[in-house]
Amino acid sequence: MTPPAPPSRLILGILCMTTAGVMFSGMGGIAKLLGETYSSLQVSWARAFVHLIFLGAVFLPRGGIAVLRSRRPGLQLFRAVMLTCSNLCFFYAVTFIPLAKAAAISMTAPLIVTLLAWPMLGERTTPLRLAAVMTGFLGVIVVIRPGGELFHWASFFVIGSATAYGVYQVLTRRVAPFDPPTTSALWAPLTGALGLLAVLPFVWISPAGPGDMALFFGCGALGATGHYFVARAFTYAPANLVSPFQYFQLLSAVVVGWAMFGNLPDAATWVGAGVIVVAGLWLGWAQRRR
Question: What is the CB neighbour count within 10 angstroms for residue 37?
Answer without folding.
Answer: 13
